[in-house]
Design goal:
Elements lengths: L5 H26 L4 H10 L2 H7 L10 H29 L5 H25 L9
Helix pairs in contact: 1-2, 1-5, 2-4, 2-5, 3-4, 4-5
Length: about 130
């Protein structure tokens, strides 16, 4: 098996991200309701709390505050992800969004979150070399 270069992975991730935003914009533009853009913003920042709190750690093994901070980041990230999936369903149930717009929003949001998650997972190696 051949390994993909980092540039090829970056291009494929940007393609998936653009496809996700296309689905969300189409869900808003076709039916004239722009609430799905709010969902795209939620999905694009849903992984941010985990990224911020994963790097927070203390050297003191008796101090549990770093565990609480990591758990809070996971909770906040899960809350944003759940909110991103729930808002289109609630709007569809209240007849503000159509069923097709809800499906496009859910699919686009899933693609946005998956590409952001894959980008941060792949490019966050954790080992930074400051060699010249």
């Amino acid at each position: 098996m051949s390994q993909k270069s980092p540039l090829a992975r970056l291009i494929s991730l940007s393609y998936v991200l653009a496809l996700g935003f296309l689905f969300v914009v189409l869900a808003g533009a076709i039916y004239g309701n722009w609430y799905p853009i709010l969902v795209a913003l939620i999905f694009s920042v849903a992984h941010l709390p985990m990224v911020v709190t994963n790097n927070y750690s203390r050297d003191d093994f008796m101090n549990e505050s770093s565990i609480y901070v990591n758990d809070f980041g996971k909770f906040l990230s899960g809350f944003l992800l759940f909110t991103g999936f729930a808002i289109p369903l609630v709007l569809c149930h209240s007849l503000i969004l159509t069923t097709v717009a809800c499906i496009l929003t859910e699919l686009g949001g899933s693609l946005i979150y998956a590409s952001v998650f894959a980008f941060t997972t792949y490019f966050d190696s954790g080992e930074e070399s400051f060699e010249i």
